[in-house]
Give the backbone structure.
Amino acid sequence: SEEIVYRYPSLKLADVYATIAYYLNHQQEVEAYLQQRQQQAREVRAANETKFDPQGLRDRLLARKRDS
């Protein structure tokens, strides 16, 4: 916990301990939430890649760089 506060000085040690305690007491719920969010992120990414062809974007950016 002290290492986290050292790396992120805007955090308070008590808050870091409280967060760790919450996680330890609700580990299954937290893991389920994180898995749900990861699945949602995959779905959003897939939808965006369907709407906006990443190869087309790459080609346009390279052309713009080449022309400038």
